[in-house]
Design a protein that fits this description.
Elements lengths: L20 H29 L5 H24 L8 H17 L2 H29 L5 H23 L8 H21 L1
């Protein structure tokens, strides 16, 4: 730049004064990790079922997850939040979960979607309650984003049910195991 002026994109930063930084850091870190993991799950499902009749449905949900991840990447920069150190693990674990569930067929992939999306929408609801208790006006933009993403996750959950998730082999066992994994991933990603 001429005259030695620095190029700094001020619009990518938010005012951090008065926010509860530990709470916001935890929320953005874990949501970024969750959306990253969701992207890897859908990538794994597409690797197995991409050319099947359910491929376009999985792709549609994956496209929304890509938008979610893009937004959380932006929020990480804006709020100056470091990502979880577990991203390399979620990279592999997410893909393996997606591909593994897809190897059970369409119903297995949809069972995975139902389990994960139910866990995530419950988690988003908990975050919404936290931010509402903190200061709904101060966190208005973040609340809008989380509410919209929660609604998208609920839609994915319902799509999974509409596509025979409950008919997957050992559905309740599969769902419970995946949801326990989600709870552990949430717990760890918030903190590490």
């Amino acid at each position: 730049p001429a005259g030695g002026a620095s190029l700094r994109l001020c619009s990518t930063r938010v005012t951090l004064e008065g926010i509860n930084k530990p709470v916001i850091d935890r929320i953005i870190r874990v949501d970024h990790a969750g959306e990253y993991g969701a992207n890897r799950i859908y990538a794994g499902q597409m690797a197995i079922l991409g050319r099947s009749s359910v491929g376009p449905i999985i792709q549609q949900m994956w496209n929304q997850e890509k938008d979610h991840l893009k937004k959380f990447n932006e929020l990480m920069v804006a709020y100056r939040v470091r990502p979880t150190v577990l991203l390399p693990f979620w990279n592999v674990a997410g893909f393996v979960l997606g591909a593994g569930s897809a190897l059970l067929g369409k119903k297995g992939a949809m069972a995975c979607t139902v389990a994960v999306e139910e866990s995530i929408s419950d988690h988003y609801n908990s975050q919404i309650r936290t931010l509402m208790e903190e200061d709904p006006e101060k966190y208005k933009e973040l609340l809008q984003i989380i509410k919209q993403f929660r609604d998208d996750e609920r839609e994915h959950h319902d799509i999974g049910l509409e596509h025979d998730a409950e008919a997957a082999p050992a559905y309740s066992v599969l769902k419970t195991a995946i949801q326990l994994g989600c709870k552990a991933a949430i717990f760890l990603s918030e903190r590490i």
